[in-house]
Amino acid sequence: MKPLTPLELDALEARLQHPIPTAYRELLTHTGAGEHGDVQVYHPLEIEEAYQYHFEEPEELFNTYFPFGCNQRSQEIWPGPVNTIFRVAKALAGVPI
């Protein structure tokens, strides 16, 4: 995983035409998007592409609850309450949860 810079995230927000949630933004700046062992953190464009047609307003997808990643082994998709994002970030960083 390659961490995304604040400038890259700003460009993504401009392309998406809505803000990326703060906790998800922090995760992307620390770990980046992609696979890390069994864990996959989705890139914002992957989320939008896969789920945008399920929402009347695209920015709703990036509100408090959205699918931001998954565990490939268990096939568990992580919906994005803020505490879940931080739990995953800690796991990726090797910090006990």
UniProtKB/TrEMBL annotation:
Name of the protein in question: Knr4/Smi1-like domain-containing protein
Domain of life: Bacteria
Record Pfam families: SMI1_KNR4
Taxonomic classification: Bacteria, Pseudomonadati, Pseudomonadota, Betaproteobacteria, Burkholderiales
Location of the Knr4/Smi1-like domain: 3-69
Species annotation: Acidovorax soli
Membrane-spanning segments: none
InterPro entries registered for this protein in UniProt: Knr4/Smi1-like_dom, Knr4/Smi1-like_sf
